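ok trying again, last paste got cut off:
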Amino acid sequence: MSTNRLATTTRTEPTSTTVLRTPRSIGVLESDREQPASSVGRTPVASRELPGDPGRSLTAIVVELPPGIKVGSHQHAGTVFAYVVEGSVRSQLNDGEVVEYKTGQSWMEPPGTTHSLTENPSPSAPARLLAVFVAPTGAQLTTPGR
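nice, full thing came through this time. structure:
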């Protein structure tokens, strides 16, 4: 993925969403359980400059999360729309609730947000999501968290 900051969450819920109520510390992953972001597959789908919005581009990437992976805190450039194509993804924005999104569900990450947790909770099935970024042209779309 790329640089983008997260602030609030907007969810599209075709079915029910599981909200996991956990201690705030869930956003800090234990180093022995967290896997490097390099374990995450990224397949570029499209990248186009936005007509009428000079200096900004729309970039679409399919993100593949192996079974059981937990990705540490990171930020993105611009705004991100994420849609779960396959499997299930647990996500936490800033210090908010941990939310589990299933196939067909989506969320939005506004600029300035920290993506505190990204996790595929399945021990055996991969998860895939489509991440669509609207960010400054040429920006690094994902950077490690602080």
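cool. The chain has a mean pLDDT of 80. The radius of gyration is 14 Å.
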